[in-house]
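Please check both lines for our workbook:

___
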Amino acid sequence: MIESPPEYKYDEKTFLLYNQLRENGELKEINDAYLFWDKIKYKAKIASPQEYWSAIKMARILNSQNVTFGKYSFQFSSTDFILQLLHYCDLNIGGNLGSNVGIAETDKKMFMISSIMEEAISSSQMEGANTTRKKAKEMIQKELKPKSKSEQMIMNNFVTMKYIVQNKSDDLTPDKLLYIHNLISNDTLDNKDEEGVFRENDEIYVVNYSNSEVVHTPPNHQEIEVLINELCDFFNNDQKIFIHPIIKGIIIHFMIGWIHPFSDGNGRTARALFYWYMLKNGYWLTEYLAISTIIKDTKNQYEKAFIYTEIDQNDMTYFITYHLKTMEKAFISLKEYIGRKQKEVIQAAKFIKIPNVNDRQAQILKIISEDEDRVLSSKEIENRFSISNFTARADLNNLQSLGFLEKIQVNKIKHNFVRSKDFTKIIKSYKL
């Protein structure tokens, strides 16, 4: 249960307190963290909690912008902390690969091919998908048919992310939104007729399942058409008053969750639209940020950011602040991931010394040297390195011809590869 804030009032006393808080630095500290009433009330030392809250609200409203969808009005503030994070994201998520994460542009696919998989897995796990990351990655890499609802959710997310990357320059329309939902929800809803269609009733609530508390009642289903049309216009066009593109993307994410236009899959759809909007507006590195991985690890904060917004008169700054922190963490995580991948390349470098072995084949040798029971398919190599199936088969066949791999027949047509019995002896013969 989250306590609603008290009514605030604006009078001369509030204005004087506002100036005092601004001068002593308390205002900046509270608004940079964008604390809610449940924490602010304990910080009131020089006035009553209600008076303190009124002064904080005055500061927020004086520094706010409004956005309207249908008959609903929302607002957000641009705090120093938000401006700082926006600058950080502008520098790091919209620049070039070499300057951002310290690797050459030509190595992009080699280092980042699994990022979309990470996003697909985490976004699905947030909505209840229950499978291991290793099993999920294997399913995607080998293009195996999903065997459960959880695996289907993850595969759907992966397919959706690939579709968005390929169509990132398109405008958003209600029909395309329905198509995105259809991709995401395919074979995962209790009622298949609800895939790719807006809800047609109001029998839907956002519930905190730990205590069965209803935390959000979405708008009437008859309002969905107007709200979605206005959201599409917001997605596609500039507003009369400038809104930073990253903030616009976060607002789009929030609004899909708030409108709740579908019977299920709203969270996955909202996160997919955020990616689409960011890519459309030049923040290309978003494609490789596993933002849902961070959200999944801070899900309680994610949910509270939605609730705080609604309780505090649709002040979206709570959600914007949380989301920007998440993006910063996702970028730091990406840099760490790149660092690990670079180490893997360095570790694989010794295999490059083997005559007639290219850099991909060296990495394949590293994989099977560390996992002697590993079974490789051309499809997995194709997906892992983002190469054609012909090139993947050529790599594997070359390693077989050099004696490192052996073929095993799967059926009359298909075969896979395993480490050869003489692998260790051949490696030693090269005196690496």
